Amino acid sequence: MSTNKHLSNDAFDRVLCELGREYRLLGPRRFPGKGAHSGADVTGYGEIGSLSDLYLEGKTYFSPKECLFPVRETLFYFRDKDITPAAFDDRPTIIFLRPCDINGIKRLDTIFLHNGSEPDPYYARRRERVKFFLIECREGFDSCFCVSMDANRSDDYACACRFEGDGVRVEIKDGSFAPFFAGGEDAAAFLAFVTANKTSVQVPDLSRVDLGALFQHEIWQEYSSRCIACGRCNTSCVTCSCFTMQDVSYGRNQALGERRRVWAGCHIDGFTDMAGGHSFRAKNGDRMRFKTMHKINDFKRRFGFHMCVGCGRCDDVCPEYISFPTCIERLGRISREMTHE
Ligand code: SF4
Ligand code: SF4
Fold this sequence. Notes:
Elements: E1 3-7, H1 9-22, E2 24-31, E3 42-47, E4 72-79, E5 82-85, E6 93-97, H2 99-114, H3 121-127, E7 130-135, E8 159-163, E9 168-172, E10 185-186, H4 211-216, H5 219-226, H6 232-236, E11 243-250, E12 253-263, H7 284-303, H8 313-317, H9 324-339
Parallel strand pairs: 2-6, 6-7, 7-8
Antiparallel strand pairs: 1-9, 1-10, 2-3, 4-5, 4-12, 8-9, 11-12
Helix pairs in contact: 5-7
The chain binds iron/sulfur cluster (2 copies).
Protein name: Anaerobic sulfite reductase subunit A
Keywords: Iron, Iron-sulfur, Metal-binding
GO molecular function, one term: iron-sulfur cluster binding
């Protein structure tokens, strides 16, 4: 059974300090001067040490997926036929994150742990060490459409926090964390979730649509002229899980080096290049079609729920102002025209 506590900000900082002795603490934060423009900050996920490190005013540019699936990761080192697994930070980890992102990580779990005969060991070794501290999210932000995607709620958390400015309310669901919060005042249950977003979409059921005709529809040509294939929507998306492999040899000795995996994305040039020079989706609109269908149709047909969680980051970061909810709505209109509904 859960217990609820109220702590002052100072008391919460002391709890973070205690937790930090046993856990690696990750959460939304600013990275000063690391933005795309000179002197600009960027927001993403990284280590935090105190309440003031947490970025709570908005949505982060990058998602928490990099806590479990780093941008670039050395998997192992090779020397002739000898393989040595790469070390990783194996401390137990707490991630502070919002409900949509917990649901996003559920999608990553599906791909990395349940989409094949064996779980991905590099993802699994991090994932099994992680516990979630939910950041209560009652209003969302302008581009969020998590309610439409049924990703606004989650009960998959060890603790949940309401940051009130002058104090913090905490629901402790995982009893192993109760001693850390024992000094707080008992409080009433409080946790709430956003129930309506400013942006909403109705995801069309494409099961009766002629997918061949949809594949050829002119809508995708328009995206060919707008999308510049920068890949920002892929890298900021909590549910995009594609990667490429690189064997990096040390010096001239090809038998000595390391194997890395590095994020890749369906919008980025070269993603579908084959030996011999063929590329399956050379046009940027074809890539938009692939991403859209994967996020709101194909994944659900395989796993029973949509891949997209409606975090809205792809809208926030697109330099061409391409709106994913608008694309979904347009698909809905096309689907109604095709099925005469
Ligand atoms: S497709 Fe866009 S809205 Fe959906 S999960 Fe990815 S970034 Fe978020
Ligand atoms: S962020 Fe926008 S322009 Fe860049 S690849 Fe995605 S849809 Fe295309």
